[in-house]
Design brief:
251 residues; alpha/beta; Rossmann fold; 7 strands
Length: 251
């Protein structure tokens, strides 16, 4: 229980990678605020299922609804978590969307929606959460980027820009927060089994597998394990780093 007593906030935690992260942090003793946005009716139910799974296993969790694109909503969410548990120790910026199409077909709305959710959302959550971490002189900020943010991908210039922005944002904030004993890191997953990859045609999935030396897609739990390490005391001298977890596809 190496995270016992720590308070964590995981954005986009109702499903996929965020769900796996929330469950992993809780299994190590952390209290977990499970963020979701009620764009789809199922999101509230999914978030409630994650919270219930944690509680049933003897952990502590709460659902927190907020549109991370909205500064007032993010501030209220952070204050809600801090009021309930007295502090915020770990922030995982996981929430993200994609709206894929080629550049010449991409609408302004498609660009803005991805940048505002993936990049501005990470900015707002970090800005409000680190205020609490600075007071307690301890904190962990872990943002989920993507290998696409490192190498690019046709049809995803908005997504790649948002994830590349998270990398630059991480390196900059790490320099600002180091003196306060707050580490700031990013994880760049490759092809992970999620709703996004499950929608791909089998032919496309087979093509992806051919790029991966380990010959399998990653699981959300693979990412969650790395988040748990970066959130622990064991990673106290790691900051400003971007760690790729992709089965060797993009060394």
């Amino acid at each position: 229980m190496e995270l016992e007593g720590k308070v964590s906030l995981v954005t986009g935690a109702s499903r996929g990678i965020g769900r796996a992260i929330a469950l992993k942090l809780a299994s190590l003793g952390a209290m977990v605020a499970v963020n979701y946005v009620e764009i789809e009716p199922s999101n509230r139910d999914d978030a409630g299922e994650v919270v219930q799974s944690i509680v049933d296993a003897g952990g502590k969790a709460m659902p927190v609804e907020a549109d991370i694109r909205n500064s007032d909503a993010v501030k209220a969410m952070v204050e809600q978590v801090a009021e309930k548990w007295g502090r915020i120790d770990i922030l995982v910026n996981n929430a993200g969307i994609n709206k894929d199409t080629l550049l010449l077909r991409m609408s302004d709305d498609d660009w803005d929606a991805v940048i505002e959710t993936n990049l501005k959302g990470a900015f707002l959550c970090t800005k409000h959460a680190v205020r609490h971490m600075m007071k307690q002189q301890w904190g962990r900020v872990i943002s989920i980027s993507s290998v696409v943010g490192r190498v690019g991908n046709a049809g995803q210039c908005n997504y790649a820009a948002s994830k590349g922005g998270i990398i630059a944002f991480t390196k900059s904030v790490a320099r600002e927060m180091g003196s306060r004993n707050i580490t700031v890191n990013a994880i760049a997953p490759g092809f992970i089994v999620t709703d996004m990859t499950n929608r791909l045609p089998q032919e496309t999935r087979d093509g992806l597998l051919s790029l991966i030396p380990l010959a399998r897609l990653g699981q959300p739990e693979d990412v969650a394990e790395l988040v748990a390490f970066l959130a622990s005391e064991k990673a106290g001298y790691i900051t400003g780093q971007v760690i790729t977890i992709d089965g060797g596809a993009f060394p």
